[in-house]
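If you are new to this repository, start here. Below is one unmodified record pulled from the training split, so you can see the exact layout before writing a loader.
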Amino acid sequence: MFVDRLLATFAHLRYEVTHDVLACWFGVDRSTITRAVSEVRPRLAERGCTVSPDVRLRSLANVVDHLGASGATGMVDGTEIRVRRPTAGREDRDKFMARASRTTSKHGRHRRRGPRAVVQPSTARKPRGHHSRPPVGLVRLLADGLAVLADAGYQGLGAQTGGRVMTPPHRKFEKNAPNWYEEIHERQRKAHSSRRIRVEHGIAHLKNWRALARHFGRREHMSDTVQAVAGLLSHQQTVDLTSTGQR
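And here is the target side for that same chain:
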């Protein structure tokens, strides 16, 4: 039944329940669960994100058009999600490492940080140092008058977009800055941070889903997983706000 396949996919995305366990729960073979998740997950990803009960956005172009029509301010950010280490001997194995440095655990042992994928609003990709590269097509799609808030990782993008992507203020003094400048810079930085705190909360809600806290599946499924979870979460939040009379 489609409902059972849907429930199995929900359990896998929300709690990272393995296919073996789901197979036991539903009394089917493991391959049946794998096939069900593979079929349902892309369909959930295609649904898009619910902005209001009558508005659903399915692409970055839809988001830009909606922001332009509503006059709202957009926000953009990225986050890292741990994924499985590529197999030994793979030529581009090091490219999946977010950082090549070693860290020391509380037990005194050195261990290398696991591989990560960088997740942005509409794409998932291998890390390349910092998430300074914008989501695919963002610069091309930004319309005149559309404002987008971003963090310091997107510095320089403002020049490409004519100032429409706003990042925290640059420091004009590397050291020995006068007190009056420190006060102004800190006030501006906090004001910018408080405006874009919603995107930080949004990412935190996404990563409450175990499939995005650490991704154990195949890396090529990451984009569908992100978009499926975002669609489900946005629909739930829209329903909750509507039921309480908030908009």
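Two things worth knowing about this chain: The chain has a mean pLDDT of 82. Residues 222-243 form the longest helix (22 residues).
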